[in-house]
Amino acid sequence: MATLWTRGIQVCRALPRLCTAPSVQRRTSVRLMSTEKDNLLVDVDSKTGVATMQMNRPPVNSLNLEFLTSISIALEKLENEKCRGLILTSDVPKIFCAGLDILEMYQPDVERLQVFWRSLQDVWLRLYGSKMATIAAINGHSPAGGCLLATCCDYRIMAPNYTIGLNETQLGIVAPFWFRDTMCGVIGHRETEHALTLGIMYSTEEALNIKLVDKVVPQDKVIPAAQEKMKQYLKIPEVARQLSKDLMRRETVEKLRLRREDDVAAFKNFAVRESVQKSLGMYLEMLKKKSQQKK
Ligand SMILES: CCCCC/C=C/C(=O)SCCNC(=O)CCNC(=O)[C@H](O)C(C)(C)COP(=O)(O)OP(=O)(O)OC[C@H]1O[C@@H](n2cnc3c(N)ncnc32)[C@H](O)[C@@H]1OP(=O)(O)O
């Protein structure tokens, strides 16, 4: 078992054959970078070539700039090392991912805001466009950006009694076209329009009904079920599987690739609006009150 450390990322792998960098093959433990608290744990099973990526940024795995950067670097590494599959899950109890860190968008530093958005684009381009077979093991709530991560994957398995959806309008903000396109690819145009305009958070059972998730299993079976489903993907000849996925997703990926900077500008101009800032402030206040009441 080899362990790699990078900015907030631990990558463990069981077989050196997956490691293409010579320094990795030679050593069992390499610290590439160590700056922040480790918030992403990535294990690679060398027999199968399947990586399990666990998000671990308590309390709710919200996606700030540093966390997105960690995810993006890890995805690039796995792709470069020719991993065949990825299971995306959470190490934080009851939360898959709370979506974008609202503090990145509220009263923002405009320079950082744009870097933040580019890093989200990077994660989306890497995950949605991944050559790996990808399965979301949704073991907790998954609003907004959390739902985006899940819908980027090829297959979704969810535990009962949680919620998932693109709830942006409830915050007074609007999901960009690539969130919409990703959701459309999973549940279709009509249901996406319904979901986006109302900012619906679906229960696990509702999500299964509209096929936003593919399978529901008890909490402790989510990862085993993902591993089992992964075997089906890995049985398909690699190039055929990858090209079929590419055939389905290339246009959507290219649409963002061609308009990345326009999209950054649109996001920035929207986010700094007074009315948007007011809505985000009220939403944060509501979250804080709710959190205080629990304590
Ligand atoms: C302008 C265009 C942008 C378009 C794209 C936007 C995409 C997004 O992802 S926007 C983010 C949307 N996310 C949400 O609406 C989720 C909000 N959070 C929740 O609904 C809940 O926190 C929960 C269901 C995820 C978890 O509930 P629970 O376990 O009860 O935890 P708490 O609500 O008590 O939260 C603990 C702690 O975390 C703070 N927090 C929660 N979510 C976020 C977040 N997304 N960003 C930043 N901070 C978040 C919450 O305020 C609590 O903080 P404290 O008050 O300091 O304890």
Automatic annotation (TrEMBL):
An annotated GO cellular component: mitochondrial matrix
Isomerase is among the record's keywords: yes
Pathway in which the depicted protein is active: Lipid metabolism; fatty acid beta-oxidation
Keywords carried by this UniProt record: Acetylation, Fatty acid metabolism, Isomerase, Lipid metabolism, Mitochondrion, Transit peptide
A Pfam family recorded for this sequence: ECH_1
InterPro entries, A to Z: ClpP/crotonase-like_dom_sf (IPR029045), Enoyl-CoA_hyd/isom_CS (IPR018376), Enoyl-CoA_hydra/iso (IPR001753)
GO molecular function: delta(3)-delta(2)-enoyl-CoA isomerase activity
Major location category of this protein: mitochondrion
Domain of life where this protein originates: Eukaryota
Catalytically driven reaction(s): (3Z)-decenoyl-CoA = (2E)-decenoyl-CoA; (3Z)-octenoyl-CoA = (2E)-octenoyl-CoA; (3Z)-dodecenoyl-CoA = (2E)-dodecenoyl-CoA; (2E)-tetradecenoyl-CoA = (3Z)-tetradecenoyl-CoA
GO biological process, one term: fatty acid beta-oxidation
PROSITE patterns reported in the protein's UniProt record: ENOYL_COA_HYDRATASE
Subcellular location: Mitochondrion matrix
Task performed by this protein: Key enzyme of fatty acid beta-oxidation. Able to isomerize both 3-cis (3Z) and 3-trans (3E) double bonds into the 2-trans (2E) form in a range of enoyl-CoA species, with a preference for (3Z)-enoyl-CoAs over (3E)-enoyl-CoAs. The catalytic efficiency of this enzyme is not affected by the fatty acyl chain length.
Assembly, per entry: Homotrimer.
The family this protein is said to belong to: Belongs to the enoyl-CoA hydratase/isomerase family.
Record-given protein name: Enoyl-CoA delta isomerase 1, mitochondrial
Organism annotation: Mizuhopecten yessoensis
Lineage, broadest ranks: Eukaryota, Metazoa, Spiralia, Lophotrochozoa, Mollusca
